[in-house]
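TOKENISE THE FOLD
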Amino acid sequence: MSTPSSAAAPVPPPEGVSGAVSKDVVEIERALNRIVYLTGRVRQHERLMALAGVSLDRAAVALLRQIADSDPLRPGELAARLGVEASHVTRQVQQLEKAGHVTRVPDPDDRRAQRIRLTATGQDAIDRIRVASCQGMEVALADWSPGELRQLATLFHRMVDDFLDKAEADIEGTDASHSV
């Protein structure tokens, strides 16, 4: 596989999109799509669940990961973070609650509302999934130096934070593409 050139010459935009896009951004977008494809395959998910010894569908895993990475959240907040409809989260939470992976706790800011929290069973499941996932990554990235791994992690987190910041600015009506 060839490495993209470091030249940042503009690429004509797709039909209906204004402005040119740098080759580097095009290559980043292509790489992200490849990652999403590889990690989103049903066979990959089934393999990961088998290695972890856990039986959860992809939506449940995404929800459990989000809950594990934050303080307890309201279902609506979970839906917003995952970019799905609230009804989807409600159904998923009900299934995970029945399986003993999550529980509802009172919202300290509004006792009428509830937040979703992992149970010990849910934490164990997500820990097992993460261990299995990380073991696969370690095999795939075995030839990378510790510095390269650290740099990749830093840049991935920066990219996600920037995406979230820009999306939030767009939601609030700010044209984030013109801010410097």
Q: What stands out?
A: The beta strands are 10-11, 21-22, 102-107, 110-118. The radius of gyration is 20 Å. The first strand starts at residue 10 and ends at 11.
